[in-house]
């Protein structure tokens, strides 16, 4: 598996990318200056966007291009191997997504109904219709794990609206995976 790639562009400079643990680190050197950054893989969408001679990996949160690669540099095979490894690692690092199995306590109809009310009050309901529909189904059977999984899937499909939902409905925070800070030491 290719975990490092160096791209040299005759006009735009050098870009070096390396997969390290749960992040991708990159260094860019150009006539405009040098830049170094580390991006946690869990914030990236595993499906890149092609735009001419560039490939972008976008943020799952705000759809901003965080990783920008020159297509087929240094060569097509090495580029494809690195992109394949990067996509695989991003998929492995999906701990930032909601998961129904992360909920450790029972769900009550009142919690779900309050969540629906908060979302309908603070957001445009038509923009989150699928999520609201899955929540209404969960309200009818709060202990149903399949219905909870449908709520989680609808949330994970929201894109940029996830932030608003998390702001107005604390219920979703109970579905986030937990990370012990000691794991980072």
Low-confidence stretches: 177-185
| Helical content band | 25-40%
- Major sheet attributes: 4 strands, antiparallel
The helix/strand series, from N terminus to C terminus, equals: EEEEEEEHHHHH
The tally of beta strands, per DSSP, is 7
Strand order of the largest sheet: 1-2-3-4
| Overall pLDDT confidence | 86
What's the gyration radius in Å?
A: 20 Å
Topology readout:
Layout: E1 4-9, E2 13-20, E3 23-30, E4 33-40, E5 49-51, E6 54-58, E7 65-70, H1 76-92, H2 109-122, H3 129-140, H4 145-156, H5 162-168
Helix pairs in contact: 2-3, 3-4
Short description:
The chain is α+β, with helices and mostly antiparallel strands.
Explain the overall architecture.
- The chain has 185 residues and is an alpha+beta fold.
- The chain contains five helices and seven strands, in the order βββββββααααα.
- It has helices spanning 76-92, 109-122, 129-140, 145-156, 162-168, and strands at 4-9, 13-20, 23-30, 33-40, 49-51, 54-58, 65-70.
- The protein has a four-stranded antiparallel sheet, with helices on one face.
- A hairpin with a 2-residue loop joins strand 2 (13-20) and strand 3.
- Helix 3 (129-140) runs antiparallel to helix 4.
- The longest helix is centred in the middle third of the chain and has 17 residues, at 76-92.
- It is elongated and about 60 Å long.
- The model is unreliable at 177-185 (pLDDT under 50).
């Amino acid at each position: 598996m290719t975990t490092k790639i160096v791209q040299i562009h005759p006009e735009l400079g050098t870009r070096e990318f390396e997969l390290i643990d749960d992040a991708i680190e990159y260094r860019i050197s150009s006539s405009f200056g040098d830049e170094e950054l580390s991006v946690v893989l869990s914030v990236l969408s595993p499906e890149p966007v092609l735009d001419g001679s560039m490939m972008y990996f976008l943020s799952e949160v705000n759809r901003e291009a965080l990783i920008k690669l020159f297509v087929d540099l240094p060569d097509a095979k090495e580029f494809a191997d690195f992109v394949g490894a990067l996509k695989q690692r991003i998929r492995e690092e999906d701990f930032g997504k909601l998961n129904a199995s992360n909920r450790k306590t029972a769900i009550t109809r009142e919690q779900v109904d309050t969540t629906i009310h908060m979302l309908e009050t603070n957001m445009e309901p038509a923009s989150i219709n699928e999520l609201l529909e899955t929540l209404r189904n969960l309200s009818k059977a709060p202990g149903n794990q399949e219905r909870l999984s449908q709520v989680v899937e609808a949330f994970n499909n929201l894109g940029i609206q996830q932030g608003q939902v998390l702001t107005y409905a604390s219920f979703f925070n109970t579905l986030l995976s937990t990370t012990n800070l000691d794991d980072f030491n």
